[in-house]
Amino acid sequence: MRVLGLDVGTKTIGVAVSDELGWTAQGIETIKVDMQEHMHNTGIKRIDELVAQYGVDTILVGLPKNMNGTIGPRGEACQKYAELLKEKLNLPVIMWDERLSTMAAERVLITGDVSRKKRKKVIDKMAAVMILQGYLDSKK
Q1: Residue 62 CA to chain centroid, in angstroms?
Q2: Which distant-in-sequence residues (6+ apart) come within 8 Å of 98 by Cβ?
Q3: First vs last Cα of the chain: how many Å apart?
Q4: Mind spelling out the 3-state secondary structure of the chain?
Q5: Tens digits of per-residue pLDDT, 2-48?
Q6: YqgF/RNase H-like domain spans which residues (predicted)?
Q7: In terms of residue numbers, what domain contains 53?
Q8: Distance CA 2, CA 50 (A)
Q9: Ramachandran bin of 43, using left for φ above 0, alpha for ψ from -120 to 50, beta for the remaining angles
Q10: Per-residue pLDDT tens over the stretch 38-92
């Protein structure tokens, strides 16, 4: 059982994948997308390629909730994207609370003394790792 974890943004999607036993999450890549008004490039083609390459059977999408637990515009956009994934890839898609995952990823990278320029390139992938690892840990 492999799970693909996604941190979905308007310009990039961070991607992580679990190991075959579902214990650990590893960052794969950051996909450049354009999900502003017309959704010209949703990244679904690349995600489909990664699903096939890694033998993924479930997709996990981070759900950015507000601190009070409500879902705002960004969360609604992620829910719509999850529905699109489900429709196009015909796989189960799970929404996972991702509050503060990007901030936590930033702290890890700063602690690791990663330069600001390099952090910008990997922050979304690292956030996807944290989202997926949180989900995997909850299953143990």
Answers
A1: 6
A2: 7, 62, 63, 64, 65, 127, 131, 134
A3: 14
A4: CCEEEEEECCCEEEEEEECCCCCCEEEEEEEECECCCCCCECCHHHHHHHHHHHCCCEEEEEECECCCCCECHHHHHHHHHHHHHHHHHCCCEEEEECCCHHHHHHHHHHHCCCCHHHHHHHHHHHHHHHHHHHHHHHCC
A5: 999 999 988 899 999 999 999 999 999 999 998 766 566 789 999 99
A6: 1-105
A7: 3-138
A8: 11
A9: left
A10: 566 789 999 999 999 999 999 999 998 877 878 888 889 899 999 999 999 999 9
Residue 30 contacts residue 122 (beta carbons within 8 Å): yes
Domains: count for the chain: 1
- What single-letter amino acid sits at 23? W
Q: What is the CATH number of the domain that holds 33?
A: 3.30.420.140
CA dist., res. 78 & res. 81, Å (int): 5
